[in-house]
């Protein structure tokens, strides 16, 4: 009877595998107590039971790495990312059962086939990326080396046993509101090449980042994108000055709605408001071509912008203007704004001529001036593909006006150059 049971079990396993590949259908991913929409997973349990996702394909030599971006940590942030056997139990977190391993976001611990974890790396929060991969595919001895990353940097590695069927990407969640995005085609570079160094240096350019991921000069929206409160905001560390008075944004991917905005805002600008919607800000919005100046209602301003378009924003300062803490050094290098030589649309001088100042004052007589800022006014201008779209006079809040980029729909990516005139 024992021999018959063994043969029966082998037959069942063979039937399962033939069901996956015998009729040409791809292996199916499995998940429980989770909702899957595209590449997004969200927890659907009652916070007492684990929800788990297992991919349809194991990691391999040609696809040895995947990443999970935390969209929302929910109540407890009990999100786990790792590798498991093909028919792993979906009511257990990855890493709890034998032949599985996982990095847990809520406590930074590594679980290696055991419900008791060991301290491994930092905790992870909303917007963080957790990666998992294999350094080599040498599993002849039944072991392989699995490594984990946080935001592109390796946290650590561990040697784990491997079954013949391989190790499958897995994600576990255990509390209400938890939501992640899974990228099963992510790439990992073992060597810290120039591009990795560039990512670190450009991340330092940003003083505030909310639901936005930085990769070199690229900003990517990683928020929910389900309501107007899900704005992704990136604000530069330094304000525009008479020495550095202009920046540009190229739309790399318009995403679902192209809810992309660039402009200027005060340093303490609300994190869940698009640039231009609240006091102390002004912005050109790509989706409708409108300008928003301290109000949720925009004015017709320029054409809509799409993938490949370059939007620019800068300040024309009065000739005698001096910012807080700024010296009166040589300004010869900034006498003229020249964007994309050969396009005659942008030929604006840095400092306003007297007649232009008078014209702006007349245009703004009927507009409400920000409280307490009547004596410090500049002209903000916007460009599209090197051509001037228009100008708007505004008061400068204490501390200056900071380059600020907003995004609000899935898939949006922009390339930002904070110093396009530096040569």
UniProtKB/TrEMBL annotation:
SMART domains named in the record: SPRY
Biased composition (Acidic residues): 356-371
CDD domains, per database record: SPRYD3 (cd12908)
Organism: Solea senegalensis
Top-level taxonomic group: Eukaryota
Region listing for Disordered, in residue ranges: 356-376
Record-annotated B30.2/SPRY domain positions: 1-189
Protein name as catalogued: SPRY domain-containing protein 3-like
InterPro entries: B30.2/SPRY (IPR001870), SPRY_dom (IPR003877), SPRYD3_SPRY (IPR035783), Ubq-SigPath_Reg (IPR050618)
Alphabetized Pfam families for the sequence: SPRY
PANTHER family in alphabetical order: RAN BINDING PROTEIN 9-RELATED
């Amino acid at each position: 009877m024992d021999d018959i049971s063994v043969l029966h079990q082998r037959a069942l396993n063979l039937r399962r595998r033939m069901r996956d590949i015998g009729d040409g259908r791809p292996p199916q991913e499995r998940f429980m107590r989770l909702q899957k929409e595209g590449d997004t997973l969200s927890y659907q349990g009652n916070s007492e039971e684990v929800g788990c996702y297992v991919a349809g394909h194991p990691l391999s030599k040609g696809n040895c790495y995947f990443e999970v971006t935390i969209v929302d940590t929910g109540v407890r942030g009990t999100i786990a990312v790792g590798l498991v056997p093909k028919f792993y139990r979906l009511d257990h977190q990855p890493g709890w059962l034998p032949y599985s391993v996982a990095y847990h976001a809520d406590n930074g611990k590594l679980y290696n086939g055991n419900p008791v974890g060991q301290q491994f790396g930092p905790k992870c929060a909303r917007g963080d990326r957790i990666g998992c991969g294999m350094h080599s595919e040498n599993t002849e001895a039944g072991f392989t080396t699995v490594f984990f990353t946080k935001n592109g940097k390796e946290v650590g590695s561990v040697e784990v046993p491997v079954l013949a069927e391989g190790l499958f990407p897995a994600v576990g969640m255990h509390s209400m509101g938890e939501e992640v995005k899974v990228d099963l085609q992510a790439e990992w570079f073992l060597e810290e090449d120039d591009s990795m160094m560039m990512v670190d240096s450009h991340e330092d350019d940003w003083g505030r980042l909310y639901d936005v991921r930085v990769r070199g000069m690229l900003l990517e929206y990683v928020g929910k994108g389900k309501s107007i409160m899900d704005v992704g905001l990136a604000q530069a560390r330094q304000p525009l000055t008479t020495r550095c008075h202009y920046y540009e944004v190229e739309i790399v991917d318009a995403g679902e709605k192209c809810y992309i905005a660039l402009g200027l805002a005060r340093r303490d600008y609300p994190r869940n408001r698009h640039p231009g919607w609240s006091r102390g800000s002004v912005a050109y919005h790509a989706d409708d071509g409108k300008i928003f100046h301290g109000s949720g209602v925009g004015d017709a301003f320029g054409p809509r912008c799409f993938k490949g378009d370059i939007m620019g924003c800068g300040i024309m300062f009065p000739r005698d203007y001096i910012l807080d803490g700024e010296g009166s050094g040589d300004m010869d290098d900034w006498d003229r704004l020249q964007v994309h030589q050969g396009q005659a649309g942008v030929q604006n001088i840095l400092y306003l001529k007297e007649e232009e100042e008078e014209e702006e004052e007349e245009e703004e007589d009927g507009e409400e001036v920000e409280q307490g800022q009547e004596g410090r006014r500049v002209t903000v201008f916007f460009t599209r593909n090197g051509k001037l779209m228009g100008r708007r006079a505004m008061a400068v809040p204490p501390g200056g006006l900071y380059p600020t980029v907003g995004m609000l729909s899935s898939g949006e990516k922009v390339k930002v150059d904070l110093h396009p005139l530096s040569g």
